Amino acid sequence: MNAGSARVRFVVAAGAALGLLLTGCGGGSSTSGGGGGGGSSSAGADAGGKLKGASISVGSKEFTESKVLAQITMAVLKNAGADTKTASLSGSATVREALVKGDIGMYWEYTGTGWVNILGHTTSDVPTDLYQKVASEDKANKIAWLPPAPMNDTYRIAVTKDFGDKNSIATMSDAATYIKAHPDQGKVCAASEFINRDDGLPGLEKAYGFKFTKVIELDLGLVYTQIGKKCDFGEVFSTDGRIVANKLTIIEDDKKFFVDYNAALTVRQEVLDKYPAIAELMAPVSKALTNEEITKLNASVDVDGKKEADVAEQWLKDNKLIG
Fold first, then answer.
1. Are 32 and 91 in the same domain?
2. pLDDT recorded at residue 16
3. What does the buried/exposed string (b/e) look like for 74-101 if buried means 16 or more CB atoms within 10 Å of the residue's CB?
4. What is the mean pLDDT of residues 107-133?
5. In terms of residue numbers, what domain contains 246?
6. How far apart are CA 279 and CA 266, in angstroms?
7. For position 179, which CATH number holds?
8. In what order do the strands lie in the sheet with 263-268?
9. N or C: which end of the chain has fewer CB within 10 A?
10. Are the CB atoms for 73 and 44 separated by under 8 Å?
11. pTM (predicted TM-score)
């Protein structure tokens, strides 16, 4: 993930932010839906007019991956006949509040964010069946979690490949040992939310029994380019295409501190009740969103400079998920 906060502490969002709700992202703010697609047997490609007459607003956070997922969703709904609008909002708290209030009908959220930030649990009580627990608890808020994608976009710490190889840093335990022995090479770059979150920097340092020598706060989009320059270590997200582009190496979380962040489409229950075909249409899409696939999609935007809407539509066509 990139360009700002991917998962912000769940605080009450400013009402002014919601006033920007229907600001378009990627391919524009509103598109009229057409008919069904071509000859594939998948639910998406053969959508026909399953959502004909529906008007649905799809939200996203402000970083690339969330925007790509929103554009994928819009294209699938449009292919099934819906009129769609998109809203790119700043941070988890704002977009979640928009969903709960009914300003948007759906957006992609992460199981870890649901557990810690939305439902108020901690990283020390994460269940093995995380998705099922999150989905079950959020029913009380009249929010449905559709089946998650296999992609797991979780926090990680990265170094340059040269730095990692030279100093034999493969795991976070290795990193902790190295920083204790070489405090002059223990600077970390990170975004503000990671610096302050229990499931971010404070919890990581506690779990591994060490402290970074210096914490340099940067916009997340800058962290990837500053690892090996302003800092020795940096916060990254595991499916970000810029990891490869900047020749970074992800350090293994050998104590498994970081929570899983499988992506799932969260939908207002009243919207899903009114348009139950949404679940059917999105099921094959979600199933196809592996770590490898979403990393490629992210890189197409962040590295190759393509538009989220164009990347989303091409991927759906290539995978015969729309006609």
1. yes
2. 37
3. bbbbbbbbbbbbbbbbbbbbbbbbbbee
4. 92
5. 155-250
6. 10
7. 3.40.190.120
8. 30-31, 83-88, 55-60, 106-110, 263-268, 143-145
9. C
10. no
11. 0.77
